[in-house]
């Protein structure tokens, strides 16, 4: 068994990547089915079950660059959620521990050496029918696969302002589609709602549940500010309990802000002082209008700005200059590379310093999982 190419090897497909990566774009390397390969190399069979039936789970993880290097943010929590979702879909033929998955991701980021903030997309899916399994929709008797890609994804900096529509599409109830997992097939509802909103000139959509209460946006959780209190739908509802949502609730409560988890009606949003969204991709985004009605003053408000400052401090490992800006949370951060190693040519990453050891044993174990599932 091999562990895939080393960081010193050139990408096996196509020309060598440029000496520096721009802030946007796919990393030169990817992890696919037990080994590191050129990001352009993987090819899926046309019979891939996850493609046909949406039997796949994924995560979105951010890595942030700060003064002392690149850090993954809450990667352990993301991978723990992903493994729970994998068990639901009987996806067992992939690295089995959170630690293995985090180590693979760290090594991939070191190989790609993006020179800015990064978005990481792990995807675990059903691959091929095993001998004796009849054709059709199935979870048992189907092999599994895992891929991880990274993208340069700079943060917006200031609080993003978005205009949302209240969607005609409803969030499926959790007894129809598990809400607590990022199951690929379930995102068709979000795609329909987003397409409907953008066709009407909006940036995003907010979906209701079957009871008519607010569920979530297409890929984000919803918060409202009412009488100075933050209110968000409870995580027992038909919504994904986001890790960014949990981060914001934790940081706000530590900062002395009141956060309530209770149902929100559309009227609660229309009459709120502020509404904002939270997600790994959006971070903290202020909803300045909903279905043509301004929220509050029609601009990003002070609460959203404060929440964004708390979040920025947590993800960049830097204590804020302002007292209201919060404190760093090193327990949420996984070091990847120090600053002087970022932006290096991905095909020839400099040797990693002793304080940032490269893991290797897990790669042989991961390849073993892939061989066993083939």
From TrEMBL:
Enzyme Commission (EC) number: 2.6.1.42
GO terms assigned for molecular function: branched-chain-amino-acid transaminase activity
- Would I find Transcription among this entry's keywords? no
Name any one Pfam family assigned in the record: Aminotran_4
Composition skew (Pro residues), residue ranges: 348-357
The UniProt record lists the keyword Zinc = no
InterPro entries from the entry?
Aminotrans_IV, Aminotrans_IV_CS, Aminotransferase-like, BCAT-like_C, BCAT-like_N, Class-IV_PLP-Dep_Aminotrnsfr
Could you tell me which Gene3D superfamilies the record lists for this protein?
A: 3.30.470.10, D-amino Acid Aminotransferase, subunit A, domain 2
Q: Which UniProt keywords apply?
A: Aminotransferase, Pyridoxal phosphate, Transferase
* Cofactors named for this entry: pyridoxal 5'-phosphate
Q: Which segments carry the region annotation Disordered?
A: 1-20, 343-374
Compositionally biased region (Basic and acidic residues): 361-374
Q: Give the record's family classification.
A: Belongs to the class-IV pyridoxal-phosphate-dependent aminotransferase family.
Name of the featured protein: Branched-chain amino acid aminotransferase
